[in-house]
Amino acid sequence: MKTHQIMIWVMIAFLPGLAAMTYVLGFGVVWNLAILSFACVLCEGLIALAKGKSLSTALYQLKDCTALLTAWLIAICLPPFCEISMLLIAAISAIGLAKQAYGGLGHNLFNPAMVGYAVVLVSFPQDLANWPALAQASPDALSGATLLTEFRYRQGLTTEEFVITFGQAIGDQKLIVFSFLIGGLLLTYRRLLAWRVPAGMFAGLLLASLFGYDAGSSASLGSAWFHLTTGGFMAAAFFIATDPVTHPRGARQQIIFGLTVGSLIYLIRGFGAYPDGIAFAILFANCLTPLLNRLNLETPGPARQRPASDV
């Protein structure tokens, strides 16, 4: 498949999770998606023109749909109905800073969507904590924290008590999570992603949780199942960390990459300043990709011949 065909398949697989988020969180998810899609595509086109390319060449460059997919990935990370200024900053950071500043498609070191999200997260932490209240009947009221934030600051509740208190919100989260899982399994079946990356992430999260889960006391960091089914772990495992440009090429190195991301997500959620930590875990692992690729080239035998898209 050509790049634009792969991107279209990824966006098709993305639709169940996007629909579930819209159902649970409201139309604000679509607002983010629309503004970011326009901003990312416009930014990509303007940069191409600024580089001296003709209008027809710039339009042809947009055909690969990578800017559009970047916008979709950022959109699901942000609270519904984000300010337009924040959405524009995320788009410019993702396309201009993380992608085009490195030379464009195929040359970027860091995942563009995670760079865009991380920039606005660090710049506007208060605004990005403004999610629909978990107990709110209408998803249009933005006055609550995420489930992971509530778990971090649960004020002495055991994990069992927390599950009882936030049962409805946990159920909504599972709907979103398993919708992204369906899309991820479709991509895996179509051999459009390196399955070792999400497999390594699952293993890394499980191993880290063995040291942080103490059968559910008020000091517990949470079980592996809880962290799998809350937050954006499933979407990150299948749609973000599997970006073929920013993860390693070799089979063993992809597993190491996934293990790093999965364990870091758990550690950041448990001890870091941010309740989720997916963006920072992936960006840190992106830093390791050049080293892991070099180790792959130094590995004798067929392993070093595996292409980035090998599954």
List the keywords.
311 residues, mainly alpha, two-stranded antiparallel sheet, 2 strands, globular, disordered C terminus
Topology:
Blueprint: H1 3-25, H2 28-50, H3 55-62, H4 66-75, H5 84-99, H6 112-123, E1 131-132, E2 142-144, H7 147-152, H8 159-165, H9 167-189, H10 196-212, H11 224-228, H12 233-240, H13 251-271, H14 278-298
Antiparallel strand pairs: 1-2
Number of helices: 14
Q: Strand order, biggest sheet? A: 1-2
Strand element count: 2
Q: What structural class do you assign from the helix and strand content?
A: mainly alpha
Largest sheet: 2 strands, antiparallel
Task: State the helicity in percent bands.
Answer: 55-70%
Q: Which residues form runs of ≥5 with pLDDT under 50?
A: 302-311
| Portion in strands | under 5%
- Summed up, the domain count is 2
Globally, the shape reads: globular
pLDDT averaged residue by residue? 89
Computed Rg: 19 Å
